Amino acid sequence: MEYPNFSLTDQVALVTGASRGIGFGVARALAHAGATVAVAARATDELHTLVEEIQREGGTAVAFPLDVRDNAQIRATIEAVQTTLGRLDILVNNAGLGANHPALDVTEADWDEMMAVNLKGLFFCCQAAGRIMLQQGHGRIINMSSQASVVGIRDHAVYCASKGGVNQLTRVLALEWSAQGVTVNAVAPTFIYTPGTAERLDTPSYYQGVVERLPIGRVGTITDVAAAVIYLASPAGALVTGTVLMVDGGWTAQ
Ligand code: NAP
Q1: pTM exceeds 0.85 for this model
Q2: What are φ and ψ of residue 26, in 5° steps?
């Protein structure tokens, strides 16, 4: 029999939102699995720190400044990745915002900002990368969703709506592109300790409430998420497309 292959050697990956948190760790893990990694976000100093860290670990990475709210920047950056690194095999659409507001307090600006990053930016990154991948006849797109895409979380109305949209985009793109060699999936984590969640998870009562609802009895780690991304990006994940892989410690099983 052929054994499953989790190696990403000779693959070129782009990770958005790589300047901190999950994106930072996923980029390192992709490089560790053998990929050359293009790392993108607005905070360029942090991207350069990441590039140095990956190089120290023996990998290859290049930084690309990117604000995913701007479609022209998305197109230019993804073209630059292809020109600089020769191809684009893996896109991890990780850039995202979280916010905690009771629904009655949400402003139009809150709505527009979150949708611009979490949903519109993600879609146009898929579109720009999809054009390249379809021409290559090979590609892996992994969209960072959330457990909040399939269950409601109090005070997260816009976030939940944006991540529900991510799952639906994932399914439709999988239908359109899988036969041409481009798989499209989402990873849906539970609470992961990152700069984006530290303030809430550092509040003991909040942390306690989260862990009590998690059947696995702990919050997730960036490594838990990176493992799912690598599986979906690797040859081992070839048959998986149009799915939302819950990395949620059982949160949505109840
Ligand atoms: P984080 O620590 O707040 O980091 C967010 C990343 O997104 C940063 O690198 C940030 O980079 C980037 N970003 C934000 N706005 C951007 C923009 N306009 N253009 C380009 N990049 C932008 O977040 P995280 O906790 O690691 O979460 C990462 C992803 O996982 C998000 O999609 C989030 O919804 C999802 N997720 C997180 C959790 C969790 O518990 N942490 C759970 C489920 C899902 P710059 O500010 O430098 O641009």
Answers
A1: yes
A2: -65, -40
